[in-house]
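Hi P.,

Sorry for the delay on this. The queue was packed all week, but I finally got your sequence through. Input first:
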Amino acid sequence: MIAYLTGTVAATDQATAVIDVGGVGYAVFMSNRALSRLPQVGAQTRVFTYLQVREDGMSLYGFLSMEEKELFQKLIGVTGVGPKVALAALSTFEPAELVEAIVAEDVSAVSRIPGVGKKSASRIVLELKGSLDSGFAQAGAPARENANMKLAAETLMAMGFSPTEAEVALRDAPADATEAALVKYALKRIGS
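Then the structure:
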């Protein structure tokens, strides 16, 4: 499985981004929100990924945060919801907004997702309301609104640590440290 890609944004269109990693271009399907937040072509980025393998091919789906990826995986676990609908959901709502709508059992809000009617929205709410709580989307937020802090938290989550463990490990870390220094700091705290 491919957990994430770190490379250069080579190209984007309405549904995909091409991430160049060591001379290999990976076409990654992403939500409209994620595509709009990618850095410009030629800039470095990290994209968390979900690889779908089917009999007729493989597809790679990309996310800018672990929370977005986890929500995508929960959505495609709902009966009748495929990757296209899950990406449409993440294009329509911020992860925190979608979780809030599901937890509040707001079927009319969930039915605003393109391709989701009242019946499908009810199924999404019914199947996910127990597995999500209002803290789900906020749990992935880094301890500070610092780009390196966020990348360090996402790296720790990609290594298998929970969002809460990553946040606690990065608490009191130097705000001006590089991503690598923050990851080292957090791993030392977790190990002690």
